Every structure is written in structure tokens, then in C-alpha cells.
Amino acid sequence: MNQQATIMKLGQRIPLSIKRLGINGEGIGYYKRNVVFVKGALPGEDIYAELTKINRNFAEAKIIKIHKQSKARQTPPCPVYDLCGGCQLQHMKYGDQLKAKRDVIVQALHKYVKNSAKQVDIRKTIGMSDPWHYRNKSQFQVRKIGSHVAAGLYTENSHKLLDIDDCLVQDTRTTAITNKAKKIIEELDIPVYNSKTHKGIVRTIVVRVGLQTGEIQLVLITARKNFPNKEVLLEKLKGIDESIVSIVQNINNDQTSLIFGDQTITLYGQDTIHEELGELAFDLSARAFFQLNPSQTVHLYNEIKQAAGLTGNEKIVDAYCGVGTIGLWLADQAKEVRGMDIIPESIEDAKKNAKKHGFTHTKYVAGTAEKWLDIWQKEGFIPDVLTVDPPRTGLAPNLINTLLQVKPKRIVYTSCNPSTLAKDLQELMKVYNVEYIQPLDMFPQTAHVESVTLLTLK
């Protein structure tokens, strides 16, 4: 039996001093040198906690009593905050959230690059002037609770649906339209999908708002294409709000947790809605990925541009380019922009976006970044600046090896996971200096931490 199992037992109640915030927003304390994660606890608090889970390397606990409360603590404004799980930090004042997010990056560096961590310039987190109602898209599951049609999110770690009439981090238009749509579905007695029996029609209501244009798209995800009262339903949905310019049906008949299926039909209006980011404009289809917080995305992209240090003569590679947004943001001050992504549809969108904005010095190809960097190096093309915005898993090991060999002069690394960022820096710092890390708060009230890191060749 390991030492932890002998010291701590399930249900045991222990005193804890919370030292810091974890990557998922939980408080971290130590009991006889063992790490204990406590949901809802804040740094600086002394608490009495009950152990709810014992693992080999850590334990989890819930708060029984707070003996000494942090000055950062506040009452969460959302009435279902404790049940929902969509936000993790509403119980913490916003200014303290920003400090804590910077500290999560500091912790990650001390874990993976301890010898260099103190020398790295980690700047103050750039927050939002209004950290509420910022999400431009909602995806609410639809279920029948008695005779009532409910739409919302599942409670944390369960299959119980939480009916949400108002979400404090969603744009108010998304929830208002979802509420009206679910009422119409209830009045027309449209069958609602049941995940256990795999029967029923309506699975999910998705609403996306163009924050700059005001255009709204309403998407109904259904288990099959045709169903009773479909035409009447469409007429009533059209009348919800005059800003709705697109109503789309997506069909997903699979027993899956994935939201969207493969077939999409436009029932009314346009196939897409129009959105603008700074000087750039995008047409967004129902399944297209787009930043969920467009107003803060402008700040993020400007930080990337500043880090790139462009003079007009640089060759840029935008790795993991998606639909090309970051590369296009830099294109007006670059000699050439090349991008790659493993999703062919994204590359097609990137080409269309570049053409629409009149850029003729861009090139987009499908495939991995390491493959194309190697090919281009053999052809004599070495980027001056490489910008990369990888998934939470960080950079692929093969890409890191390729970067260490190709050696772009500057790497601008946008990260959504401090742990994988620090792990990747451990390797990249063999040939690169970390000039600075700039944290940004893309998702206030949640534990998500975004950052832009500038690396320069030694």
C-alpha cells in the first residue's frame, strides 16, 4: 500500500491551507505532503475539508467549513453556478481571477523549466472591461422534463440536464432566442430526442450572433430530416427575432456525444452569417469554428502581431492555421504568408478568406506543419516568423524537432494550456530565448488561461 493510502482515507475530514489555484480552477492544499484538490477553495483560505477521492498521486476533497476566508471570495451571481460546471471561478473577484491565471503560468514554468522560470518576463493578464455576456455562440441540449421542453447544459459529471433560461457568460440574444425556440417546440409538441431510447426529433439548439453585424443564425440539430409540423415550426422560428438571417437544420442520427452530424440543410435565409474582426470579415457556416469571444480575440491577435515584430519583409508560416485568421491578421505587414492544417475543409476556407480580402501573397496547404516545413526548407524557404496556435495537447513532438532543425528567427506561440506550453518550452529553449509571456483572459469566470509567448533564436 502506498504512503498516501495509509495517511488519507475516503470520508476523512482534514484541515487544509489553500496555497494556490490549480489548472482547472480548484484550490490546492497539502496534507502531510500530499496534494489535495478542493473545488471552490481559494488561495489564502484555511478550510476544513472532507476527502471524496483518493488517487495514487493526489486526493480530492469538498469544503465542509471555511475558517479563514480569502478577500478575493465573492458570492457567485449565477443561481446555478454550483450545479452547472460551465464556469469555475465565479466565486472569485475578477481582478483576482486575472492574477490567478498569471500564477497558473508561473507554476507551470516552475514545474517544467525550473532553472529558467525566474528569468522569464510573465506579464500581467489582459482582462475584459466587462467580463460577462461575452460568448457569441450557445449549444444547448434539448430534453423533455415532464411536459416541459428544457434546453441547457448537463450538470457537472452527470447526464442530468440543467434547464438554463439565462446564462451570464452568453450573449443575451443567444439565450433569449433559445428560450423562445424551446417554447415553440413545446407548444407544437415536436418530439424531443431521448438519448436512452434513441427516439424523438430535436436534440440541440445552437444560436450564433455576429457581434459586429448583429446577424443571427439559429440551428436545430435533429435526429432525422422530416418530422410532423416542420413547416409550421419554421414559420414560427422565423418570427422570433428580425435579426435571424439564417435558420439551419443539421441531422445527427448517431448515438454519440458529438453535437453536429454530417448533413446540413438551410431552411431559411442565408447559409452563413457575416462577422467582422478588426479589418477582416468572415462568413460563418453552422459548423465553422470561430472564436467564441470576438471582442477579446482582437486583443489576442494584436498581441500576436506585436510579438511578430513585422517590418513588411518577413516570410511567415501560420501552423495549425484553421481558416487562416491569424495569418491573415498579419498579412498586411508581411512579405509572404504560408499556412497549413490537417483539415482540408479549413484550408479551402483559408484560401477563400485570403482571396476575399485581396491577398495574393498567401499560400495554404493541407497536411502537418512538420511535413511542410521540411519540404519548404529543402526548397530554400525558411520562415522569419512562425506563429502557432495548437490544441490543448500542445505542439506535436515531430513539429518541435522540425522547428529545432529549421530554426525560424521568431516563434509566436499562442497557448490555451499552460502545462503543455511549459512542457514545449522545455524543448524549444534549447535553441530559443523566451522574451516574454503575455497572458490574456479569453474566457472570464472560467479556469481557461490563454497566452502569447515570443521566442527568439539564440
From TrEMBL:
It comes from the Bacteria. The active site is at C416. GO terms for biological process: rRNA base methylation. S-adenosyl-L-methionine binds at Q291, Y320, D341, D389. Gene3D superfamilies: 2.40.50.1070, Nucleic acid-binding proteins, Vaccinia Virus protein VP39. Belongs to the class I-like SAM-binding methyltransferase superfamily. RNA M5U methyltransferase family. This is 23S rRNA (Uracil-5-)-methyltransferase RumA. It comes from Rummeliibacillus stabekisii.
